[in-house]
């Protein structure tokens, strides 16, 4: 079955609900059982059915079924946010005295969790360069229990050699987790490349409408029970309304991602010719240093990329950003709206130095007409230049 067909049909069963196309939203805490035997049977297997609202409802299970099937996972676990999916995974595998290998380009709140709560628990983290492959072996310790990847990396979009990392890790009995939010299950088939746990901030492209917080942990058979037990122990549960919004978003994921990618490439071709732009980072762009790995491993791209601007005064940057009318200034991404955000990778990298002469901007290409977005950016560059523009680096 092609992905577009799977997106349309997985996670729904109209015959079960009088022909209704979408599964209903189950708002539930208490679940009643017809007799003591049924209650006791359910309590012996609380992770496999409707037992208590916090463990999941039929709405939750429909989304989990669809997400797991799309990526080729054994099962999925839905939680309240992408960060909840990340922290649940880390806590499921790590305990005091353990060692974690974490990619240096990882999402900022993941690093904050590793350097904060995990460190206080006696779990050590080593950050490794995103271009590490087989040479990662030198960082593995006897107590290393997990290798965490994110490809492309947050803010700077380096592509990792995930198959090489998985081969190295599995030869030593170490599982590999991946934050796969940028590509979604549609454009990077994590389990085909050896990943054990694939994490999604479904808040982004899965929901797709900037109106719900949601996280999904897709996991293979070997580790599903470990992940589910950790989520339950930590009190995590995705709301039924949010799961319904995730299911709604899945139905149009393929057409939205195609538009996001096409618009991103259109903007990048235009931006790369501007004198105010020094560098573009987007793996699907042929000039990107990670393009070869992207071509080898990915089925497509999304709408998120970054640009390095020419050195400028703070006033020029503010003039450029503050006057934009179609690019919102805000966090998150993956919705229908275009966004632009100044970011500072140099503040977090530890395994490798990150330096840029000018501001680094993260851009999300939304679903607006590309020509209108270009006009908005062009007006921003006019303001930039009037405010002093490029200065010597």
Automatic annotation (TrEMBL):
**Keywords assigned by UniProt?**
Lyase, Pyridoxal phosphate
What's a single GO BP term from this record? Answer: L-cysteine catabolic process to pyruvate
State the Pfam families in the record. Cys_Met_Meta_PP
GO function term, MF aspect, one = cysteine-S-conjugate beta-lyase activity
User: What EC identifiers does the entry list?
Assistant: 4.4.1.8
Names of the cofactor(s): pyridoxal 5'-phosphate
Q: Which residues carry this modification: N6-(pyridoxal phosphate)lysine?
A: 204
Fetch the Gene3D superfamilies from UniProt: Aspartate Aminotransferase, domain 1, Type I PLP-dependent aspartate aminotransferase-like (Major domain)
Q: Which reaction does it catalyse?
A: L,L-cystathionine + H2O = L-homocysteine + pyruvate + NH4(+)
Entry superkingdom? Bacteria
> Known PANTHER family for this protein?
CYSTATHIONINE BETA-LYASE-RELATED (PTHR43500:SF1)
Belongs to which family? Belongs to the trans-sulfuration enzymes family.
Protein name, per record: Cystathionine beta-lyase
| Gene that specifies this protein | metC
């Amino acid at each position: 079955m092609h992905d577009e067909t799977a997106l349309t049909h997985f996670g729904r069963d109209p015959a079960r609900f009088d022909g209704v196309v979408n599964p209903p939203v189950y708002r539930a805490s208490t679940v009643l059982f017809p007799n003591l035997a049924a209650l006791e049977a359910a309590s012996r297997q609380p992770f496999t059915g409707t037992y208590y609202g916090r463990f999941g409802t039929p709405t939750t299970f429909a989304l989990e079924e669809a997400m797991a099937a799309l990526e080729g996972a054994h099962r999925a676990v839905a939680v309240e946010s992408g960060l909840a999916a990340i922290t649940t995974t880390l806590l499921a595998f790590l305990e005091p005295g353990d060692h974690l290998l974490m990619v240096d380009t990882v999402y900022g709140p993941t690093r904050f969790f590793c350097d904060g709560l995990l460190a206080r628990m006696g779990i050590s983290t080593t950050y490794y360069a995103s271009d590490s492959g087989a040479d990662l072996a030198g960082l593995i310790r006897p107590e290393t229990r997990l290798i965490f990847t994110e490809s492309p990396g947050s803010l700077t979009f380096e592509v990792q050699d995930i198959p090489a990392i998985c081969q190295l890790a599995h030869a030593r009995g170490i599982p590999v987790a991946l934050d796969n939010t940028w590509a979604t299950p549609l454009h990077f088939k994590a389990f085909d490349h050896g990943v054990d746990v694939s994490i999604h901030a479904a808040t982004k492209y899965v929901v797709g409408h900037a109106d719900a917080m949601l996280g999904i942990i897709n996991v293979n058979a070997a580790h599903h029970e470990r992940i589910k037990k950790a989520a339950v122990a930590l009190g995590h549960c995705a709301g039924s309304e949010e799961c319904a919004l995730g299911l709604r978003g899945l139905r149009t994921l393929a057409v939205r991602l195609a538009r996001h990618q096409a618009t991103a490439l259109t903007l990048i071709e235009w931006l790369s010719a501007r004198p105010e732009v020094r560098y573009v980072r987007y793996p699907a762009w042929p000039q990107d240093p990670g393009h070869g790995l992207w071509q080898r491993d990915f089925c497509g791209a999304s709408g998120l990329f970054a640009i390095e601007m020419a050195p400028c005064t703070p006033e020029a940057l503010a003039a450029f950003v503050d006057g934009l009318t179609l690019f919102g200034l805000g966090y998150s991404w993956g919705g229908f709206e275009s966004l632009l955000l100044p970011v500072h990778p140099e503040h977090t990298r530890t395994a490798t130095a990150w330096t840029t002469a000018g501001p680094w901007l993260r851009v999300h290409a939304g679903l607006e007409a590309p020509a209108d977005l270009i006009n908005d950016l062009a007006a921003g560059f006019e303001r930039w230049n009037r405010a002093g523009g490029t200065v010597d680096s």
